[in-house]
């Protein structure tokens, strides 16, 4: 597996992964309201790192907003979860940023919360926005 910066040519596959992953795992959200176009809206001005398999298939991605040392999105293709891809994407994202690094994790996403906490992230404060509750989490000092 290779971690590299995404190019515009990768966007069609990244859009699909984003939509399929959210529909598969975001049990608290309205799946029918999710659209393929949201990927572009949610990643404006962000550096997108992707995990690519040996056959060139995109296995997952992380979207980071470098000016604020913020990891915005981290998604693994539903067919490839549990293989360490998320950990490698998280490590690559951390390497691109300066500590302290922050992210938001939806409170209802218990699997993701556990993942981040096992990687050394700490919960700072729980907030609500647009009817969704999430934790601000921090890595580093």
Automatic annotation (TrEMBL):
Its EC number is 2.3.-.-. It holds the Pfam family Acetyltransf_1. It is an enzyme of class 2 (transferase). The keyword Acyltransferase applies. Keywords: Acyltransferase, Transferase. Residues 1-140 form the N-acetyltransferase domain. One of its GO terms (molecular function) is acyltransferase activity. It comes from the Bacteria. InterPro entries: Acyl_CoA_acyltransferase, Bact_Acetyltransf, GNAT_dom. The keyword Acyltransferase applies. This is GNAT family N-acetyltransferase.
């Amino acid at each position: 597996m290779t971690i590299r910066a995404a190019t515009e040519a990768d966007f069609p596959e990244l859009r699909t992964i984003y939509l399929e992953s959210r529909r598969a795992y975001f049990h608290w959200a309205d799946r029918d309201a999710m659209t393929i176009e949201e990927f572009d809206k949610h990643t404006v001005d962000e550096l997108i790192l992707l995990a690519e398999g040996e056959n060139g298939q995109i296995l997952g991605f992380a979207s980071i907003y470098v000016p604020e040392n913020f990891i915005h999105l981290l998604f693994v293709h539903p067919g490839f979860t549990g293989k360490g891809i998320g950990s490698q994407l998280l490590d690559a994202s951390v390497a691109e940023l300066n500590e302290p690094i922050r992210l938001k994790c939806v409170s209802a996403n218990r699997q993701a919360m556990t993942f981040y906490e096992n990687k050394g992230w700490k919960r700072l404060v729980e907030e609500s926005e647009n009817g969704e509750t999430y934790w601000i989490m921090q890595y580093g000092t």
